Amino acid sequence: MCIVMKTLLLKSSVPLLIAFLLLFTACAQNDESRSKDTSPRPDSTLVIQAGKEIVTDAFAAISNALGTAMTRGGIPHAIEYCNTVAIILTDSVSNQYNVEVRRATHKPRNPKNRANDMEMASIEAYMQLISDGAELKPRLAFQENNVIFHAPLRLVTFTCLSCHGNKEDDIREGDLAVIQQYYPEDEAIGFDLDELRGIWSVTFPYEYFIAAEAADGASN
């Protein structure tokens, strides 16, 4: 083959070679990106088990704190204490487990606890189940890199009605004045015993369960 023809062939093949290399590099980068962004989806049973444990701890922390406050200064002191400490306690549990814990409701006392669209969907679903006399089970929502656990939050004692019941029958006038002082936009009254107050919401990153499995494997 003459030198001129060889030169022409080389020149014509260079753009094709460059295009191939660019395409190969892009595909490799996409594959690497997918492998980095996608975490294995945790088993639902593990999520429910972890969610129940965290909710139990959060409920105990708030209940114990409110009980102590009520013993020291009655319901007015408990209302004041709840105003400053309840969210701090849930944040503390969040930090302890490296998750996001919150209480969400359709009738908030603290505006920060107002349910978002996803939380409202769970609240409405639980209300329907209560109306149907069905069992209330945890609900899960799997997202790209995390899973959200919802569990019902109900008013289970008559003490709850002292702050959240009917103002005519359950809440004393003086206590109602304290509620209105600390929560001028309060919506959280008018509940009956065992009524749905809202939900617990726990957001887990998928890495939470990867780390937990690694810890279990190391201990075994």
Q: Descriptors for this entry?
A:
alpha+beta; single chain; 220 residues; 4-stranded antiparallel sheet; disordered N terminus
How would you describe the overall organization of this protein?
A hairpin with a 3-residue loop joins strand 2 and strand 3. The chain has one domain. A four-stranded antiparallel β-sheet has the order 1-4-3-2. With 220 residues, it is an alpha+beta fold.
Helix content: 55-70%
What is the number of strand segments? 4
Task: Compute the number of helices.
Answer: 6
| First-to-last CA distance | 70 Å
Strand order of the largest sheet: 1-4-3-2
Largest sheet: 4 strands, antiparallel
Map the helices and strands.
Elements: H1 3-37, H2 44-97, E1 100-104, H3 117-132, E2 139-142, E3 146-154, H4 158-164, H5 173-182, E4 196-205, H6 206-219
Antiparallel strand pairs: 1-4, 2-3, 3-4
Helix pairs in contact: 2-5
Short description:
It is built from 6 helices and 4 strands; from the N terminus they run ααβαββααβα.
